[in-house]
Design goal:
Length: about 350
């Protein structure tokens, strides 16, 4: 499922803006562009670091609460893959908007098989029997969730890294900047730092964030079932990233994106992490996935790829670790036949 619709989203955005424009005076419209988007930066530092036992207890408590909650779908609960003791490496996996931890099932197993402890927490209002609950998500909830998740992950191992997809990639980048004392590795999959300009032109983004992200106007749900109020929460966080980016302890940074992705601004998807990498004096690994794979926005939707799905799991881990990435078989076959 895409973060925002493919073909009808541009129309949805335009209708939303036209409706808003009809309710506002010209002076108010001008004020939208002058409205400051940056809020007081959320604090990402934990009150107290956790050891392995304490981090495991927190994770177990979260998972038990979800198991006891009939509103949380069983397949959508948070997941902890633990080797039973603190490991040298731990990875935090942050799922995308409208998705849940099961989005990472195969990739989590790949990391676990390589010796990582793996924490995959459920985002607020996601993975519930009410498929519209995620419409209510707020930027502050998302950053608090990400900060707590990192605190748990930091107690599970020595070297900590974060992988995020789509809206989860925005949170991963935020953690890499506000918790640079902890995050050492960063992998962003289809990061949603802005919508595809063909769907929402640049001039429309800020008014949408103000009107729907601040909930000045009633929420509008696109033809694909996505809440503008919710989507703009991720955009609010994206625009709150430190500018210029901070130098932290980041060792590796990488991004993977599909040329068929019609949801995100693919230039911003590379530009934002490239600036973070530059601030840390490291190269950014950039992987444009082969068009022949047929992947669109959800580059973890690998069920139909067969052997190529396993190749991509290995590719993502290689990107995360800063190693040369293997080429998926289908891409090799296509190149050989050209």
């Amino acid at each position: 499922m895409d973060l925002i619709g493919d073909h009808q989203t541009f129309f949805d955005y335009c209708v939303a803006l036209v409706g808003a424009g009809l309710t506002l005076l010209v002076s108010a419209v001008v004020a939208l562009y002058l409205w400051p988007l940056r809020r007081r930066e959320p604090r990402g530092a934990p009150a107290q670091p956790l050891d392995f036992a304490a981090a495991t207890r927190v994770a177990d408590t979260i998972m038990a609460a979800e198991a006891a909650d009939p509103q949380v779908r069983p397949e959508s609960r948070s997941r902890l893959l633990s080797h039973g003791s603190r490991t040298g490496r731990v990875v935090l996996l942050l799922h995308g908007y409208t998705h849940a931890p099961d989005q990472y099932d195969e990739l989590a197993e790949e990391f676990f098989a390589r010796g990582y402890n793996v924490w995959v927490p459920r985002s607020p209002h996601h993975g519930t029997v009410d498929r519209r609950a995620h419409h209510q998500v707020e930027a502050g909830e998302l950053t608090a969730y990400a900060a707590q998740a990192l605190t748990v992950a930091a107690g599970l191992g020595d070297e900590v890294g974060v992988v995020g997809i789509s809206g989860g990639a925005v949170l991963a980048a935020w953690l890499a900047q506000v918790r640079g004392d902890v995050v050492r590795r960063l992998l962003l999959l289809s990061p949603f730092f802005g919508p595809d300009p063909r769907q929402a032109p640049a001039f429309a983004v800020k008014p949408l964030i103000v009107l729907y992200g601040r909930r000045i106007l009633p929420d509008r749900v696109t033809s694909r079932g996505y809440s503008l109020s919710a989507v703009t929460q991720y955009l609010t966080i994206a625009r709150s990233l430190p500018d210029p980016p901070r130098r932290t302890g980041l060792l590796t940074a990488a991004v993977a994106i599909s040329p068929l992705d019609g949801v995100v601004d693919r230039r911003a998807a590379v530009r934002v992490p490239a600036r973070i990498a530059e601030a840390n004096g490291i190269p950014l690994g950039v992987c444009e996935l082969p068009e022949s794979l047929g992947l669109r926005h959800d580059v973890l939707d690998l069920a139909a790829l067969g052997a190529d799905g396993s190749d991509l799991h290995r590719l993502y881990v290689a990107l995360y670790e800063g190693d040369p990435a293997p080429t998926p078989r289908r891409a090799q076959t296509t190149s050989a036949g050209e």
